Every structure is written in C-alpha cells, then in structure tokens.
Fold each of these.
Amino acid sequence: GNSVTQMEGPVTLSEEAFLTINCTYTATGYPSLFWYVQYPGEGLQLLLKATKADDKGSNKGFEATYRKETTSFHLEKGSVQVSDSAVYFCALTNPGGFKTIFGAGTRLFVKA
Amino acid sequence: NAGVTQTPKFQVLKTGQSMTLQCAQDMNHEYMSWYRQDPGMGLRLIHYSVGAGITDQGEVPNGYNVSRSTTEDFPLRLLSAAPSQTSVYFCASSGQAREQYFGPGTRLTVT
C-alpha cells in the first residue's frame, strides 16, 4: 500500500542554518505530494505541493522537488528563522483519489 | 470565507458519556475527513466522506460514528467515551486540488 516515510525528529538548528527534512514515499502511479506545517496549538496548513515529476513546490522560502526516480520529496530552506519552529508533515494523495497519507511528522526547533 | 470550523475547542467528558464534535466547511469541498492526533504521533484517519450521504471508515474507526447529510457538515459522534479517546481531533476538507484544509482542532479529555 501507499506510505510516506520522513526523518525522525526533533531537528534542532541555529537561526540562519540550512534545513533539510527527508521524505520518501511508496505509491503506484504519480501521486500528488505535499508538505504541511503545524504550529503549536494549531491545525495543519499547506506549506507547498507538487503534482508531477520534476515539479518544484515553493513557499515562504521552503522548497521541495518531486523526484520520481528516487521517490522523494525532501523539504529544504536555505536560512531558517525562529518562527519556523513547528512540526512538518510530508503527505501524498493518489491521482483520482482524496485520501491523504501522512508521514509521522518531524519537529523542528530553531534557536536564536 | 471561514474555511473549516470546529466546535467545541475544548471538551472534558466522563467515561461513558457521548458527545458530538461539529465540523463545517464553506468551500463546497466534496471530501471531508476526521483525524486524531496523539502526543508524539502523527495523524490517524478515523472516518472520511467523499460526498453527501457517503461515508467510510479510516484506520481507527472504533468508538466513533459519522454522518454526512449536507456538503457543508460532517459531525463526529463519540458513542461512549473512553480514556483512550483522549486526543486532539482535527476535521479537514479537500476539493479537486486534493490539498487538505484543516480546522483548528478540538482538544478532548476523557476522565
């Protein structure tokens, strides 16, 4: 079945450091891929998405590229801020379907 | 445009009580779902619906019922609350773009 695996946290970085959170998936066909972010005490919100191979999703300085050959969708940011501290979830949805499969989440702490 | 709304924000129940968590969306989305999120864990799908009158079970449906009489509303009913149902509950909706819009959550404690 479909699945999403992301790196375990927590990830602790200093402000302005480079961020990578790894995400790999297992799915048939070409799923849509997403990153969601959850700030403390809130629901998840969409951070970025990509719907086909080699697409790059980007938002708020975060980027992720849909790599079909490695079944990956790693999240990157060149310079993190304290305000980026949150839990990040990688997710996929199969084409033609609505059910979303979420990874376990990676907690990011950014120190000033 | 309110998006996805959930009520109540907080609730404390005694074991054996029943209650309904309300969820509504104003985006005319076909797909709606309920998740629970426990400490240190990701999201687990409880029930989902692909349209009015159509519901199905997710991975942890036991102890919960849902109905979808309108496109807008998707209430989650706890039949007989148990301490194991202490959790944060999120409702979400999704349209053709497949991206999910989440409500702010209901924090439920069962004593």
Amino acid sequence: GIQVEQSPPDLILQEGANSTLRCNFSDSVNNLQWFHQNPWGQLINLFYIPSGTKQNGRLSATTVATERYSLLYISSSQTTDSGVYFCAVEARGYSTLTFGKGTMLLVSP
Amino acid sequence: DAGVIQSPRHEVTEMGQEVTLRCKPISGHNSLFWYRQTMMRGLELLIYFNNNVPIDDSGMPEDRFSAKMPNASFSTLKIQPSEPRDSAVYFCASSLRGLGNEQFFGPGTRLTVL
C-alpha cells in the first residue's frame, strides 16, 4: 500500500516562530488532508488539499502532487498550536485514507 | 448543532465481552467514518459510510469487528468478542459528502479491554 512519511517527528518552537511540516507519499493520490490533534485528544480537519495551495489564517498548506509531497506552514505560532499534526492520503484507485505517524509540535510561551 | 456525539466516552470491559460503541453524526451530513487510534498503529480508518451504505471496510481488522448504520442519524461499531489488543481510542467523524470534504470528529471513546 501507499507509504506516508512525515517530518520532523517532533518539533519544539518558541511562541511567535514559524515552522514547516512535511508529508511525503509514495504514490499518486486523489486526496490529501491535514489534521491537528490537540493535547486533549480532539481531532480537527485543517485542510483538504490534493494539489495547490490553501490558506486559513496563520496556517497554509501546499501540495505538489507530481513530486508527491505536501507542506504545512504555521506562522507566528501560538501555544494553542501545540499537538500532533497528521497528514492523510487517499491513494488513487483506493477509497480509504492512510495516515502518517504525525509530527508532534510543542510551542512554548 | 451539537457536533458529532459518541457514547460511551470511556468503556472498560473484560476480554471476551461484547462492546458496542455509538455515534450520532452531524445532522445533514451524508458520510460517517470510524477511526481507531493506538500508540502502536497510529490513526487508522476502519470503515466509512455514504448515505448509510458502507463504502470501504478494508480497515476493519477482523471479523470480530462489525459496523452498522441503520439510519442517517446513528451508527454502531461492535466488537465481539473483545480482546486486550482492541484497547484504543475510537473516533467517529462525519462530513457532508465523502472523503473529499471536511470531517468533523467526535470526542472519541476510550476502550480498555482487560
């Protein structure tokens, strides 16, 4: 099946710093999504982004499908950005989502 | 809207017992998803429904697991018999339509099988 690798596995930032999270995938995809899980376990769907660039406030995401990667940018990080960020893909020809192992982000005040 | 509702929030049971997890999706959403999260395996999509019909159950681990969606406002995930390795957090999510739309997650059910 498709492989999804996220980097870095862990990241510690000072409040106000910017960061880039990466998601590499091993095959063509119909669908790519980014999720955030806060320290209390709540999951939020951040972006649906099979290709191109989207922005939502301080967060933006870019997927380059031809090169099989996606990037999640967090600008001016806040302590509430802490948690785990997951990338998930729907491989072409399949109808299920495969998740990466996530990037754990800690933003300190 | 109250969001996606899951019950129970916590369940502790003994090996061999039947476990039933429940989910009420957001009203008007046509797709419902069941996920499992463990330290070892991470997040996994178990099964999802469109318009109450199961679309993909390739993530269901084995025959001990079954899911139903008898109507648009209710779904169950059943494990019979349960085993300690089924211990996990089970999330339910719903979306307007399919995998290509924003999913809204419930708070999860933390299952412990002793």
Amino acid sequence: EVQLLESGGDLVQPGGSLRLSCAASGIIFTNYGMNWVRQAPGKGLEWVSGVGADGVTTYYADSVKGRFTISRDNSQNTLYLQMSSLIVDDTAVYYCAKGRGKVAKAAFDYWGQGTLVTVSS
Amino acid sequence: DIQMTQSPSTLSASVGDRVTITCRASQSINNWLAWYQQKPGRAPKLLIYKASNLESGVPSRFSGSGSGTEFTLTIGSLQPDDFATYYCQQYNTFSQSFGQGTTLEI
C-alpha cells in the first residue's frame, strides 16, 4: 500500500522558516518525481514545487521561487520542503504528491493527508 | 504561465444526472491534463490522466476528453458519492497549474 506521510506543519511568524517532510512507503521512491501542492483555507489547489526522481531537476511556482527549496533523500524515501521568509499568504495545507513517472511534471496518483502551515503574528 | 479556467464554478445536479465540467487552457497543453475529485477535509483523488485515461479503480461513469486547449470531464450517471469539488491540472510545462475548481452540489 502506498503511503505518503507529511509532517512539520506548525504556526510560524511572518519572516520565519519551516521544513516540511514527506515520508514515502510502498513505492520504489527513486522511480518517481514528487511534488508539493498547497491549499489555502477555503481555496483551490496551488502547485508549489516539484523534483524529478533523480533529485537534481527542481521547479517552483513564481509565488515561492527564491524562498522555498525542494529536496529529496532517496536513501530515506523522504521528500522535503524548506520554507523561509514566510508570509501570511503561505498559510495553507501542504500536500506531498507522487507523480506517475520519473519527471516532476505529471499527474499525481497518490497524495498525503496534508500538513497545516499557519503564518501569523 | 498557463492559466486554467474551469466552468461552471458551481453545478447543481441530482442523482442520476449526466454532468459535464469544462476546463480551458490559455495555450495548448496537448493532452497533458488530469482531473481530480476532492471532498472536504480530504486530499484530492486522481480520476483521469492524459486527458482521457481512467485511473485504476475509478468508476467507469467518469470519462475525460479533449486536447489542445479545451477539455471536459463527464460523469455519466451521478451517484451520491460524486458530490464534491473537481479540479483540472495541466502538466504540459514544469510550472504546473490547476483550475479554480468546480463544486458539484445537490
């Protein structure tokens, strides 16, 4: 059974930093691109960032470019999102999502349950 | 960046109805389009990938069509479990994007 388990969400002040993790099981992690997608309260889905299976190719939405860094540890089957210079508009549930292939751009066939990031003073 | 526009934003229907949701891209995305269903408090669920391919385990009453810039999701005969919000997603470019969502309500 495929499982994606996010953690690391928290209440943080504007300008602060946070690192999200997503532990994957039930898949050959090195075979798939992975992504982060967020959803602000009561709003739609927003793609945030993606990384290829090799961990080398990374992509970001303009709204987070220069502030967020995606990475993966293939030896630990874990995806990360390092977030810095957080702003109120970053408040959202953050989902990790598995792509259907090795590249980052893909349909997402498995999603985690989400972790809530709240940016507020 | 490619903008994805869904219509309608809200759709009222009844059990047994056939409904169609449209998704338009601001430029051609070939057939690199997916459809998701999301229920409140839950993660999205993949229904359709590559515009018309049914994800494993998804009921056959769901179907997708289209290419280029215009796509549709059709639900053949609505079941009570289908009332949810639906999103399209383009993955033609590495800067992927979602439509704003269509809420299907009774």
Amino acid sequence: GAGVSQTPSNKVTEKGKYVELRCDPISGHTALYWYRQSLGQGPEFLIYFQGTGAADDSGLPNDRFFAVRPEGSVSTLKIQRTERGDSAVYLCASSGGTTGELFFGEGSRLTVL
Amino acid sequence: EDQVTQSPEALRLQEGESSSLNCSYTVSGLRGLFWYRQDPGKGPEFLFTLYSAGEEKEKERLKATLTKKESFLHITAPKPEDSATYLCAVQAGSNSGYALNFGKGTSLLVTP
C-alpha cells in the first residue's frame, strides 16, 4: 500500500480482555516497529522486527504483550489480560531504506475501561 | 542511557513571529537525529534527518540544525497551519535496527 495501515483505529475494551492490533507496513519494507504513545508523551519503543523475527523486544513492558510477523509483512500486537494502564495510542512504523527514516501509521487508540 | 529533552513543552506564537525549538540529547554513537511533526490524532510525519554536527536542512519555513549536544528547529514567519507537536528523536549506534528514541515533543500553536 501507499502508507502504513493500522486497524482498528479505535478499540474500547474491558479490563481483563484480550486485544489484537494489526499493522500493514509499506510494501517491501523489511523492518517494522511498534511504539506506544501516552497523552503528552513521545512515542515509546516496544518491539522491532527484521523480516519475520523479533530482533529486539526489549521495550515490551511485560509478558502480557506479544507481537508476531509470520510472513514478514503484516504484524499483530497482542495484549492479554488488558489493564487500564495499557490505554494509549499504539503506533506502527516501517522502514526499508538505508536512511533510517521510519514511516508511521495513524495509530490504534486503545481504551481499557 | 540515551536521553532526549525537548524545550519548551509548549509554545504559542503569533503568525509571522519567528522562533526556535530546542532538542538536547545524550547518546552513545549518534547515527542520526530526526525531526517529526505530529498533528492531533495522527501518526508522526517525517521532516528531517541530520547526521553530523554542523549539518543544516531546510523545508519551507522550517530549518533544522545540529551540534554535538543539541538540535534546533527554527520556524521562520510561521503560519497557523504550522500548529502541531514537533518531536525530536535520536537513532543511536546501540539501538536495534533503526529504532528511534523520542523526546516528549513541543506543542506549537500559531495564532492568526
């Protein structure tokens, strides 16, 4: 596609529920990143994929968070047993060149009630 | 630990009133310093990358400069459509891939 696509754009769930957020990167981009942005803060790094493998998941806050990218394109961020503190905008970005520029999607706004 | 500090947190300008935003950083092995613009409800939009001290880049009313400790985003004769949050980020040699470490941003409001 022309840009990074994220779905859903908004997700409201109840505490304790399971949530999946999807990211479709720019076609041909091998690197994919997930970030989380809370109100008034800059984006916070969660995980980085190079191809199908998670090259660095050091930003995932705990084991309730998991992400996959099985075919090296679309990625899914999975959050188990959601908590109110998980409420944020989850941003996905992809990169494909040597300049290091990241292209961001519009984000998925997660609200946990 | 890499740190990025942006100032001021918020800035209000009148249309045509030039100013500068600051980004101070400490990083092990800077690969690049990035400026992004973020509109409410949108993802960050790339503006500039600077790679070495002394480098400058311009785009319309914006000019970004870089020293060994900080970067400035100069806004000349701003217009209301320049209102947004401006994010600074560093890409370090210790980072995995091209992961960026962001500051908290400067929220800019330009009034007519």
